[in-house]
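Researcher: We're teaching a course module on how sequence relates to structure. For the next exercise, students receive a sequence and then see the predicted structure as tokens, so they can try to spot secondary structure elements on their own. Here is the exercise chain.
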Amino acid sequence: AARAAERLAVLWIDAHADLNWPEVSPSGRIHGMILGASLGRGPRALTQLAGPAPKVRPEDAYLFGLCLLDPGERAWIAEGEIQAVTVDDIDALRLDAALERIACNIARSGADALHVSLDVDVLNEQVMPGTGSRHWGGLTARELARVIRRLRAAELPVRSLDVVELDPTLDPTGASTRLAAALLARALGETVR
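Model: And here is the predicted structure for the students to work with:
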């Protein structure tokens, strides 16, 4: 996505910030470092993957729906360049106001492209059991559908999208897979019957 844009912004809808790097990561898991590496922090083998670093400037990173932050991530966000909205912020500001603030900042940023990364673990564990990182207190399916609908209405320069962390084997009912498919269809402007 970064190679196809002059200036890429990223909207990271996730329960986790994924801003860690090896020196601060409590778990050492690389999937918790992906956004950090895209922003230029971490070992060269990660930050230089698929081109020079950073792929995205920290001021063009917008995180939404965070439930859990590691200490290193919290400290980086506190530096003020990365914009983060936690579930507590959503409760305090209300969903529409929190999302509107991010959408306005993206629109004013000068970014010519927006990548949306949607990790299904942003959803409450009762709604999305089919993910390896389940959390209580995440968004409801209705709230996430509203986020997607509002993003489409905002006419931001969305050029790419990923939906990650779905593990159908953890939900044999198939409900998690159906929900993820419905959310993806909504993001693409389709209707699932």
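Model: If you want an answer key for the exercise: The helical segments are 34-38, 44-47, 71-78, 87-93, 95-108, 141-153, 175-187. The chain has seven helices and five strands.
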